[in-house]
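Collaborator request, handled under Task 6.
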Amino acid sequence: MSIDDKCDNPDEIQRIKAANGLILQQRVGGVLAVTRAFGDHSLKASGLISEPHIQKYTLKPFDKFLVIASDGVWDELSD
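Structure tokens returned to the collaborator:
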């Protein structure tokens, strides 16, 4: 249900480049590994935004869990 807003996502790479940003060593401006984040105001000129991806989903009777976690958790675990 989620989209990984990382520097290896082709759509995010294109968005960063369109904002005259630069991705170096899989990081925005050579610093941040994610392309959307709160804070990090110094990277705003590099295309960093805080607008999240939002997806609507209607819970179904067989749905049991929803796990909400930071990007660091998903670096270690698979979806």
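The cover message to the collaborator said: "The chain has a mean pLDDT of 90. The first strand starts at residue 23 and ends at 24. Please let us know whether this matches your experimental observations."
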